[in-house]
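Please review this one.

:::
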Amino acid sequence: MTSIPLNPMPATSLNPAASRSKKPRNFRFSPSLSGYLFITPALMILGVFLGLPILYAIFLSFHKVEILGEMSYRFVHLRNFTRLADDGRVWIALKNTAEYVAIVVPIQTFIALMLALVLNAQIRGKNLFRVVFFLPTITSSAVLTLIFMWIYNADGLLNHFLEGFGLPTYNWLGDPNIALKSIMIMNIWASAPFFMVIYLAALQDIPESLYEAAKIDGANGCDRFLNITLPLLKPVTFFIIVMGIIGTFQLFDQSYIFSGGSGGPNNSTLTVVLLIYQYAFKSLEMGYAAALALLLATAIVLATLVQRYLFKEDMPQ
């Protein structure tokens, strides 16, 4: 006769694998999935306020839009784009914008680097200088433009200053040969401090040990700048140049305020964005304005790709 144990062991204790299988599992997201979930709200906002307007602009560029009365769209194929090639004002705006970009971007980048080098040195009151230099960046663009209109006036501060030194005065706002350059001077003065701060942060990130090793090897200040500072600043320089190109291609408010929205004198301050505004909100040619906007976007992308190609050997992989 077999005896039955008083306290038989449970079946799960005899099968450890079965016991483990019944334990609750903690569900975890993969790191990549967690990252996508975190950026989903930002992507939705970008899609609504950036992606959809881009798609709508592409749609408009192939249509003639009637906005007076009941809004209607008439498909015109590539007529808006072919019209761009025959529009003389488009070529003037492109020329002015290209000239503005070609002059402002290199000068503001150079000045920003020089200011950053000065403020990165051990000088007295450098914190005060940082604040003073950065003030134009946080000031409203419209306010700065109105201030410079007063400075550029025929009886303004700048001409009085030139007269004091016996130098010739100019019609800064009324001369077609000078008007655009007046905007350049103002924007270089206002935008260089912003890029100065970026350069300054990059300079402070360069290890001091590299300079100390170069000093031990007998390198002078110029050698250290050319062989250490500039190469290590190339990724930052690429970012600054690309941001500068994008910003200068989109010149609008200064040109609008200086010329009263006309792009004068003699179309000398007419830019692509100002021309888009004129066609869209004065002539009410939304389709043609959208085609011009796509042309501007294409120019910005191409300029960025060129910069990427020029800096590709120095960019981190």
